Amino acid sequence: MTLNEIIKIQSIIDNRSIAKDTEKNLKNIKYFSESKNKIISIGNMHIDHYVRSTNKQIKKLLKLNIDMANANNLKEFKQQLKQKRGINA
Questions:
Q1: Which of 53, 58, 85, 86 is deepest in the core (most CB within 10 A)?
Q2: Model-wide pTM > 0.85
Q3: Helices within 29-46 (DSSP H only)
């Protein structure tokens, strides 16, 4: 079941229309599908594929944040080391 289908079912159950920004996002937000080797709208993604791909992206972002934090910590450590050497020299 795709995200588009889920949102349509939700609108029927809730007896209200789909928010315009939700429709727009489902259509306009794109994702490169490695398995299909093409770019697709997230609305056309099956829910399990969307969850896996989102989880994969979150893990990449977290790793990037950790890498950046480690790089900043290393930079600060080097600066502190230079300062200590300058003071003690």
A1: 53
A2: no
A3: none
